[in-house]
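Below is a filled-in request sheet from our internal design queue. Each sheet records the structural input a requester submitted and the sequence that came back. We keep these sheets so that new team members can see what a complete request looks like end to end.

REQUESTER: design group, bay 2
PRIORITY: normal
MODE: inverse folding
CHAIN LENGTH: 355
BACKBONE (tokenized):
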């Protein structure tokens, strides 16, 4: 029997367009002999629209942004509509950023008791909030660059003190980021006070909390992790941006970045990075997949930067490329993720809810 797969994409998020690119790539890779694909599009306004079952891969992104389908309540995913059988075998949330990758949708799917690909509520929410994530990594003993954070209300109450705090604790260069966002949206690199002020203005447009990190001169290395309780790590890859840093345009628009896979590393460096990636995965209690991002300095120091609990599957995405070079082709990667989702769901059914 084929697997009835609900693809959830779009979303009320600044990363809506990234999600569409991911959805298109996944749809083109799915084997229609193995999967019945049911698109569920979330508009930028937050409306959920169920489209008809795909009989062929979507031709372009515009085909995925339909609004003529049946608008539904998210809680109706278990019910039948338009002659369909009720429910799905698995939901694949191809959502990036807030209202999708942050544990909100995952919590809803848990309440509906539906199997879903990727991380659970805790790992998703902690992985989305860079401050919480870094605090957990610190507790786990994973090395990180210095950082501080701030709420919009604190900044608005005393901007001068906010900037002074950053200069005294971190200095320049530093990076200012929205705490709960990804894909390099709202991120700025600062080398002086004027750039710091502009960076705060930019980042606070996207979140009520921001994180400021010490800038280091280092190589950017990434490792993929795949699994549930017994995760595996991929080969390491290196990002070599031609711009000052790996920004949104380099990631998703012009591909103006070199991806070196496998990265040129010593055996001990590679082993350390892959071990730390799995440690980070376990520290957040992850499941399914993450991409762990590191800094590697000239003197051999390794710092974990962050993990992405729903890395993109676009043509420029590192995660599927890492696994391809590890021996797992893209279609197989998707099938493994679906199997891991079912495995985790079945394991959860063993939990008792009565005395």
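RETURNED SEQUENCE:
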């Amino acid at each position: 029997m084929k697997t009835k797969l609900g693809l959830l994409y779009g979303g009320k998020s600044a990363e809506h367009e990234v999600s569409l690119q991911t959805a298109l790539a996944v749809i083109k890779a799915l084997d229609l002999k193995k999967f019945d694909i049911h698109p569920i599009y979330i508009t930028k306004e937050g409306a959920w629209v169920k489209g008809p079952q795909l009989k062929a891969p979507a031709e372009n992104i515009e085909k995925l942004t339909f609004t003529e389908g049946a608008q539904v309540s998210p809680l109706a995913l278990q019910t039948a509509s338009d002659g369909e059988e009720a429910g799905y075998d698995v939901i694949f949330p191809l959502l990036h950023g807030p209202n999708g990758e942050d544990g909100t949708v995952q919590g809803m799917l848990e309440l509906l008791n539906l199997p879903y690909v990727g991380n659970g509520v805790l790992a998703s929410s902690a992985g989305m909030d860079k401050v919480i994530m870094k605090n957990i990594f610190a507790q786990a003993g994973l090395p990180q660059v210095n950082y501080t954070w701030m709420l919009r209300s604190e900044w608005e109450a005393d901007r001068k003190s906010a900037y002074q705090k950053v200069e005294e604790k971190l200095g320049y260069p530093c990076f200012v980021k929205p705490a709960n966002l990804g894909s390099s949206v709202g991120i700025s690199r600062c080398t002086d006070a004027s750039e710091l002020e502009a960076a705060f203005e930019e980042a606070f447009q996207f979140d009520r909390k921001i994180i400021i990190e010490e800038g280091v001169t280092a190589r950017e290395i990434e490792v993929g992790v795949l699994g549930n309780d017994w995760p595996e790590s991929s080969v390491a890859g290196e990002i070599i941006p031609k711009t000052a840093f790996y920004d949104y345009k380099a990631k998703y628009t012009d591909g103006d970045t070199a991806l070196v896979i496998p990265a040129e590393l010593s055996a001990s460096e590679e082993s350390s990075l892959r071990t730390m990636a799995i440690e980070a995965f376990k520290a957040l209690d992850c499941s399914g997949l993450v991409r762990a991002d590191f800094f590697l300095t000239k003197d051999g120091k390794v710092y974990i930067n962050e993990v992405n609990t729903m890395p993109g599957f676009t043509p420029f995405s590192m995660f599927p490329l890492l696994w391809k070079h590890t021996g797992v082709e893209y279609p197989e990667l998707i099938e493994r993720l679906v199997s891991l989702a079912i495995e985790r769901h079945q394991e959860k059914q063993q939990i008792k809810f009565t005395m």
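SHEET NOTES:
- The chain has a mean pLDDT of 90.
- Residues 134-141+217-347 form a domain with the D-amino Acid Aminotransferase; Chain A, domain 1 fold (CATH 3.30.470.20).
FILED BY: M.R.
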